[in-house]
Amino acid sequence: MSISIENKIALVTGANRGIGKAIVESLINHGAKKVYLAVRDLSSTKELEDKFGAKVVTIKADVSSTTSINDLAKQATDVDIVVNNAGIGTPQATLGENVEKDFAHQLEVNAFGLLRIANSFADTLIKNKGALVQLNSIASIKNFAHLSTYSASKAASYSLTQGLRTELGAKGVSVLSVHPGPIATDMGSAAGFDDGAATTVVSEGIISALKAGDFHLFPDEMAKQVESAYQSFSDNVVLADFSA
Q1: Domains in the chain, ordered, with CATH?
Q2: In terms of Cα–Cα distance, which of 82, 184, 97, 76 is closest to 135?
Q3: Are 114 and 134 in contact (CB under 8 A)?
């Protein structure tokens, strides 16, 4: 299903910096009439508020809290597009003293966070025939050893995104799974990637993918290399209908 941004109301989690901030800017530049900035720190969106004025509304939200996300959904009942960008990515190998604690924390944000967003906003998105955009990663398809727990948490969120495509798609909601490679953000630098692609590659790619009605977006150069190798599996397994 094709989704145009023009005159739509959107919500972006983790909207205050990096990819989230770029997504907000792209949404407004392409005609969104209002964007909710869902962030943990209400003071962190001042630059966006100064730039866009009444077109942005900052709301306190934490994807690691079910109560917080339920409250968020009650305040944003007019949204057409929800972009779940909030996530964490700490370097952690599979072997290590703190691996269980680290993995649990990353699952709490990266996978359970998606479940909270999807379940809290499902009725609104179904009513408005809207779209849910989930920021996954090429690490959701390929485990990177020094980012093993992050990769596993994103693999979980990608699997859940596929489930949401089936369930929400049957009710008229578009679902987009975004799989960037290294991007020039604080998280990318912390993971050891210093030459990542611009955040706008992701944000502008989302606009184009929603318009095209795509399920997958591999926005940057490295991601596109993964996409070319993954395409056959995607077409014949991920997007195939096994219900018959």
Answers
A1: 9-234 (3.40.50.720)
A2: 82
A3: yes
Spatial separation of the C-alpha atoms in residues 4 and 229, rounded to whole Å? 29
Cβ-Cβ contacts under 8 Å for 67 (sequence gap 6 or more): none
Per-residue pLDDT band at 196 (split at 50, 70, 90): confident
Q: Dihedral sign for Cα 158, 163, 166, 172, please.
A: negative
Is the overall model pTM greater than 0.90, yes or no?
yes
Where would I find the H helices in 65-174? 66-75, 99-110, 112-128, 148-169
Residue listed under structure tokens 């996300």: 69
d(CA 128, CA 141): 31
Closest CA to 99 of 32, 51, 151, 44: 151
Q: Which pair of tokens denotes residue 193? A: 């990637």
Residue-level pLDDT at 195: 74
Strand partners, 38: 13, 59
Confidence check: pLDDT of 137 > 70: yes
Residue for token pair 């996954």 = 136
Are 14 and 85 in contact, with CB atoms under 8 Å apart? yes
